[in-house]
Amino acid sequence: MKTFFYIVLFSCFAFVVQAQEESSDIEYKEDTASVIKKKKFFKAGHDPAKAALFSAVLPGAGQIYNKKYWKLPIVYVGLGGLAGLVGYSAVEWKGYTEAYRKTVNSDSTIYVYRGFSGAGQLLIKRRQFKRTLDISAIALTAYYLLQIVDATVDAHLMDFNVNDDISISLLPDFKYQAKNNFSFDRSFYAGLRLKIIVK
After folding, report:
1. What is the DSSP string of 95-145?
2. pLDDT in tens, 23-76
3. In this structure, is residue 197 part of a structural domain?
4. Structural domain total, the chain
5. Is the dihedral of CA 54, 79, 143, 84 positive or negative?
6. Quick check: 151 and 54 in contact, CB under 8 A?
7. CA distances from residue 109 to 49, 86, 95, 121 in whole angstroms, order as listed
8. For residues 48 and 156, is the Cβ–Cβ distance under 8 A?
9. Is residue 40 part of a domain?
10. 73 belongs to a structural domain
11. Of 142, 153, 178, 11, which Cα lies nearest the Cα of 71?
């Protein structure tokens, strides 16, 4: 019975293999729908995606790509200052936490950290530096994202066309209109009209 099953199974695969053979009599045309142009991630010329990528990998690189060199000190002073605040707050928070734990766990030993002693004072300073650490970490992340957005927007505006051919004017608008042709009811409308002229 097993041999019969194997013979049937083998013959099914043999027919499948035979069905897959290529015939030379049939001509196949190339499907035009399958020929798709691949869209490039980066466009030619000044690209905002490149600026965003450069700025995400190395802060300030997007500003260099946009040739806005004067923004580099702003980026690095901001990031450096906030990173320093995060580091300082983390060290102080850890120091006050260790002193607080030692004070609470010991019976008679008084631990002093930066001139503060006692469980109450150490707990207050610990909470203060934890809050400073959290806020400065959020500010550092926001500043990092802001410099990426700055590079991207700046790259978008590099190709922005500013001509004298565009004008906007705000004019007063007055209308005197009858409600219908057979009525003596008249309406008076006053307002402003915004006029945009693109040449």
Report:
1. HHHHHHHHHHH-SSPPPEETTEESHHHHHHHHHHHHHHHHHHHHHHHHHHH
2. 556 665 655 555 555 556 566 668 899 999 999 999 999 999 999 999 999 999
3. no
4. 1
5. positive
6. yes
7. 60, 31, 17, 15
8. yes
9. no
10. yes
11. 153
